[in-house]
Amino acid sequence: MQDATATTQISTEAFPIQEPIVLTPGLDEKVKKSKPKTGRGAFSTLGILLAGWFFGNLILVGLLSIVVMVSASSTGLIKVPFFTENFFGKSLSTSVVADATGLESAEAKIAEINTLSSNKTIKSLQFTQDEINALFANQVEQKGSFPLYDPKIVIKDGKFVFSAKMIQTNAPVTIAGNVTSSGLIANIELTSAKFGKVSLPTFLASNLFDSYLSQIGLSLSGSQVPAKQITLENGSVTLVSVSKP
């Protein structure tokens, strides 16, 4: 019995039980730890891209807003802080005063027309450029709601040029056109218009200018005149075949 026990002990000591050999110790732990890092990196990159997109669009919107403000202020139709004053400066005076001499002369000619009997006509009656400007300024003075100041009308062969400045923005306005008449009705057709630093399409300028004129009781079209024909020459307007309206 003792010999058998000894033999068993020897066998156990000769062939001891060994632990399994791990070739890459801690690999599973490293893989597990590396996965969360990979996920956080992806989200961080996405966050950076989104932030870049947001701020890029914010800058773009800001630049577009500046462009719109500059464009709008360059017409003088609206007042934009800094830009409007930088473009057109400040107005010194916005009052409109009619020339007394020109107004007196023009009103005398109008009175002559009004005293005509129904069967009487005047072959032709001429109004000078100064008289026309005095009549227009007097109309503005009486109504007191015209958005332009320092108005001036220059009469040339077959056309006129109207110039003034916007009261709100001090922007210059220049409008050119011609006058036609049919059946004692006068119509004004614009050929060019510039508001501030921008040339506007004539259809848009006509609507704007007509809205200004309506504030002082005038209109671009459909105005009754006491003449069958209107002739524009350098410095004057001649009414042909004048009768009492």
Characterization of the model:
With 245 residues, the chain is of the alpha+beta class. It has 6 helices and 9 strands. Strand 4 (172-182) and strand 5 form a beta hairpin. Helix 4 packs across helix 5. The longest helix is centred in the N-terminal third of the chain and has 49 residues, at 27-75. The protein starts with a helix and ends with a strand.
The succession of helices and strands, N to C, reads HHHHEHEEEEEHEEE
User: Residue share in helices?
Assistant: 40-55%
Backbone shape: elongated
Number of β-strand runs: 9
Q: What does the secondary structure layout of this molecule look like, with pairings?
A:
Elements: H1 2-14, H2 27-75, H3 83-88, H4 100-114, E1 121-128, H5 129-143, E2 148-156, E3 159-166, E4 172-182, E5 185-195, E6 198-199, H6 202-214, E7 221-224, E8 227-233, E9 236-243
Antiparallel strand pairs: 1-9, 2-3, 3-4, 4-5, 5-6, 5-7, 8-9
Helix pairs in contact: 4-5
Features:
245 residues, alpha+beta, 6-stranded antiparallel beta sheet, 3-stranded antiparallel beta sheet, 6 helices, 28% strand, elongated, disordered N terminus
What's the short story on this structure?
This protein is an alpha+beta fold and 245 residues long.
